[in-house]
Amino acid sequence: MAIIDCRFRPHTESILRGLTESPIFREGLLASGLDLDEYVAGAESVAKICKDLRAFGIEKAILVGRDAETTYGFKPNNDELKKFVEEDPHLFCAFAGLDPHKGMQAVRTLDHLVKEEGFVGAATDPIYNQLPIDHAKFYPIYAKCCELDIPIVITTGPARFTEGTVSAFAHPDQIDRVANDFPELRVIVSHGAWPYISEMVGCAFRNKNVYVECSEYEKFPGSEAFIEAAKGILQDRVVFASAHPFVHYKDAVALYDGFGFTDDVKEKIMYKNAKRVLGL
């Protein structure tokens, strides 16, 4: 079965080092007991990563950008994502990371990256931008996505021990409001809006333009509701994502193999739903 991974980072040295040194993730990684030096030492070349992805059956890997420069000094990584896509444009697709605090600069960046650099979507991080999803600063970005007819990834689920983060800034009620204000906007909610899993199930059930993946959080308390919904009422709107390298894509696929999905539902989650929302 072909697979589309809707949240992926190649485990190159620059990516792994960047994660371990990030003000967003470093404290949480240390708290988990991860040996950061050993983690970085596991880096591989882009060519090797691409070869292994294809051999495993990954047809597309979505590179989700991030820009939290205003709040955390996390500069946009769009240039790095562009290089990955240039390395293997048939395998990698890039979503432009955008900082809503940058106003029209963010909108112009998105327009340029889509029209001139081949990016296929947008990405925002309300928790790390320290703004609720339905804040007015996000709305020009949402409108531009509709104009360009591209989807947007809204990252939810707070990292552990990151100072200044507020989980409620990524509450499904705000996603519900945005989905209603922009019915043409195709939304992919990343990380399932944990810990608000039940609310997220309700939001995706209500809004035909809202898709959801629960990468990293499938085994967290409360996520049983997500798996149950994926088997039934949300089977057409759940997409697979590994969040590699935080969770290795092979381990993530094995996890979904064990959830007891029917073959039909599994094909929707692992491939068909993503193909539809991505417009492939």
Automatic annotation (TrEMBL):
GO terms for molecular function: carboxy-lyase activity; hydrolase activity. It comes from the Bacteria. InterPro entries: ACMSD, Amidohydro-rel, Metal_Hydrolase. Keywords: Lyase. Residues 53-280 form the Amidohydrolase-related domain. Transmembrane segments: none annotated. PANTHER family: 2-AMINO-3-CARBOXYLMUCONATE-6-SEMIALDEHYDE DECARBOXYLASE (PTHR21240), CATALYTIC_ HYDROLASE (PTHR21240:SF19). This is Amidohydrolase-related domain-containing protein. The lineage of its organism: Bacteria, Bacillati, Bacillota, Clostridia, Eubacteriales.
